[in-house]
Give the backbone structure.
Amino acid sequence: MNSEIVGIGAALPSKCIKNSQLPRELNTSDEWIFQRTGIRQRYLAAETETTASLATVAAQNALLHAKISTNDIDLIIVATATGDYTFPATATLVQKSLQITHGAAFDVSAVCSGFIFALDVADSFIKSGKSQCALVIGAETFSRILDWSDRSTCVLFGDGAGAVVLKSQSDKHRGIQSCKIYSDGRFSDYLITSGGISANRSIGFVKMHGREVFKYAVEKFHQSLKELLKDNELKIEDVDLLVPHQANSRIINKLIEISGIDEKKVLITVQKHANTSAASIPLALNEIRDDVFSKRNVVLLSMGAGFTWGSALIKF
Ligand code: UT7
């Protein structure tokens, strides 16, 4: 069996903050943020909005789009680094909100690469026959782990959730053709929180060596794209849509330059959402969800803390 995406949905917090609305004490500017990152605004969760509540709305929207009932869902995977609680898994909270009482629900932790890691797990469950229909969700409230006095990180991130419904089907020429995930823990210090449950019993704040992360993001994006094309006997011209993780438009433009892909085929949404970590790819897909289904070869690329990175080729 093969798995295919049959529905896409998203959810954003109600509060949208433009660069010019950031606290004056940060001593930043719309000009600096936009020139260095392409970001114009970000959505930030209110106290009543959580990763699970955003993930639930994204999942409901994806189910509506797919015209699939919650009864058909036998697997829920939430990719997140900002779950509601230390435990239980945020996926079980989503399961509860959707009133699903069968199947399995668990989280995947691969930070900005989380959505592709979760997609790979769900695809493997479907290919092995363990699951028939899965919800794969990327959801984050990074605003809760930002140091709002550190302008080098807090302006870069936003909150949100995106979801896809993944369904089993028998046509091997459609759906997820390949999904590859990678990690290299030697780089774990480059993008890390200053705290954690077992390290120091705290949540911690995001700490990043921006320049190093930038350099490796370009390298890993390009390396995994080349590998994906080779494995699937495709040329760069064969790619109809490329959806990279949305951290910085300069990283994406560098990838466009070195890979030779036509820039019109590359989706950039970072200006609207900032970096939403695991939510960025499904949120981007949701922006063009009706067009996505008319594309033949769609490539997803991610890179994040760990380092972790990954790629997926989907035929619609
Ligand atoms: O999702 C995981 C992946 N994450 C990423 O991909 C992020 C990768 N890294 C980046 O996107 C970029 O490295 C940043 C956007 C984080 C930073 O851009 P940069 O061109 O590498 O800037 P920088 O860190 O070298 O800082 C340049 C200057 C510094 O001032 P001085 O020391 O040159 O006087 C910073 O203090 O910009 C200053 N700066 C700011 N100025 C205004 C840093 N943040 C800000 C700010 N507003 N928000």
About this structure: The radius of gyration is 18 Å. The chain has a mean pLDDT of 97.
